[in-house]
Amino acid sequence: MPNDESSSHAQATYTNKRSLINRTSRIIGIFAVLLVALYTSMLFFLHRWGLTAATHNVILYEAELYMDAYAQKTCTPLPNTQSMVGFLGAETVSQRVKDVFPIEKWDTWPKASDGIMYNFQRSGSYDTHYHLLVNDLPGTDQKFILFYEITVSESTREKVLKKFKEYSVIGGLAVLVLIFLFKFFIAQAISPLKSLSSWMNRIDNNPPSDLPLDLKDDEIGQLGQELRTALWRIHESNEREKQFLRNASHELRTPISIIRNAMDVLEHKRQRGDDNIDPVLARIRRASDTMKSVTEAILWLAVDRYHAPEKTVVHLAELVDEVTEENREIFKDKAVKLNSHIENGFEIEIEAILLRIALDNMLRNAFQHCEDGEITLNCLSVGRIEIVNSMPVYEDSASKSDDTNSMMLTGGFGLGLSLVAKVAEKQGWQFSFVFEDGCAISRLVFHSQDD
Predict the structure, then answer these.
(1) Which superfamily does CATH assign the domain made up of 310-451 to?
(2) pLDDT, tens digit, for every residue of 155-174?
(3) CB 394 within 8 A of CB 410
(4) Structure pTM?
């Protein structure tokens, strides 16, 4: 038992880790971290880029002012401030500048897109940024050199670092907020999937119930609807299969009994040396043909695309006699009298096996639910059969129900009248079962030929 609990717990943990919402949350969390980290880094680099761009703009602007002034007046004084120094010609460059930017390396020194060289040195608590611009003076063979340096103290550096930390904290908070929001919205989006999964877990052999109410008309809702439709088709297929088996076991019982009885008769005749077995063989052959026809009819009832039984010419009086004889075992010990009123010469072209199944079950139902009295079979017009049970044993319980409920309540012999109703419904016939004047009456109106 502990092993089972450990296995169940491990399975639950594994399932939880592998759940769609957790996997999605992890993916979105990773992307959120990367996105915010990228955004924070971009802010930091934008800050540095802004400082660099501002510095370069100052250098370029000063160089442009001087060269414009020099073009007008060659004695224009060179820029000379605490942070910016100008030179005319490389030979005039001070040693300090040469120490930072050796002249022999000017041609190979990495330059920005605007031609400004850059160098950086850290000394103690100070960071010094050096910039050097070398331009040709228009109209001369001289070069104008502008040297610019910016010294950043430790306090200023800490301010920049503090700003970066602030960006990082803001970015981290943004990550947490994004993860929370994403997880909330993902949970809302996946909630219909969880409802659909719970609905599927509740499915058993019964018809599928209605879909959960929180399923919307979206992809998940359409999936659920298609799944429910598929389950309905499977359920209907299973029901048809069960119905086929019930119908087969019910309808094949009589011909199988006939064949077994005929075989007993053959055995008895063999023991007596009686060679007159042709009638018995004919009975076996008829029962075998009936089994074949009944099987095809039941398949036609169970399978939508199965071909319908063939039509043949049927003599109603002979069919009634055959069906009555086959069911004689049911009422042989009962004080039941069967009256038949069939017009001579009634021959119709119809699906004989379907009519035989219907008539057989109508008679069985009457015989089964009558202990004494009379059962009357009327066939006074082509295409109509009526069986009247004058003393039905279920009259008291069923007389208060409508026709359909009465039929379902009585149930008949085996499948009984429900099978007759199915044949009539699929064949387009009219079948009814009613109580009138203390009698149970089953009526079947069928078409003798195509309209």
Answers:
(1) Histidine kinase-like ATPase, C-terminal domain (3.30.565.10)
(2) 766 777 787 778 778 777 87
(3) yes
(4) 0.46
